Amino acid sequence: MPDRTTRVLAAVLFVVFGTIPPAMADPLVAFRVTDGGIAQPLTAQPGDPVHGRALVADPDHGGCLSCHAAPMPEEDFQGQVGPNLAGVGDRLGPAQLRLRLIDPKRINPTTVMPAFYRTEGLHRVAKAFEGKPILTAQEIEDVVAYLVSLH
Ligand code: HEC
């Protein structure tokens, strides 16, 4: 977390210019890719699968249902672009799921799935997201915790 002065200044810049200079936004947590996955969780606090489920369904956060179906009978709209997430916890482990969310292009360079925890090298980023990942480190862990629970 940047100190209070930096955060206040960033908030003022955001109001005036509609963007936070990338250098002032929260730095991303460092991660290491090994064996097609990221074994180390991004946060010390374990992921919350209930919050992760809500993020997956929320069009303003994960927005996953625009491309994926998931075992959520209450959600009317479910996408067909990507694989159904039902049972994904049997197919992939937490390390592979973490990498898939953080930077799916490392798994498939031509994928249409967005990188949910990256700020560099992205195209057509909405102003409000400049310099910020789509999901926070804790939100990534919450979504991973939900996905590993899908059997
Ligand atoms: C723009 C469409 C799109 C969005 C949005 C999207 N995905 Fe994907 N996703 C895909 C596609 C397409 C694949 C198939 C593999 C590939 O393209 O590399 C995929 C693959 C996956 C896989 C691997 C599934 C498997 O069985 O191998 C997981 C897990 C996954 N996505 C989770 C998510 C989650 C969670 C979110 C939301 C935080 C999300 N995706 C958002 C398109 C999307």
Write the SSE topology.
Layout: H1 4-17, H2 49-57, H3 88-91, H4 94-102, H5 137-148
Helix pairs in contact: 2-5, 4-5
Bound molecules: heme C.
Heme C binds next to helix 3, helix 4 and helix 5.
Q: What would your notes on this structure say?
A:
This protein is mostly helical. It has a single domain, classed as Cytochrome Bc1 Complex, Chain D, domain 2 (Orthogonal Bundle). The protein contains five helices and no strands. The chain has helices at residues 4-17, 49-57, 88-91, 94-102, 137-148. Helix 2 (49-57) packs across helix 5 (137-148) and helix 4 (94-102) packs across helix 5. It is globular and about 45 Å long. The N and C termini lie far apart (36 Å). Bound molecules: heme C. Heme C binds next to helix 3, helix 4 and helix 5.
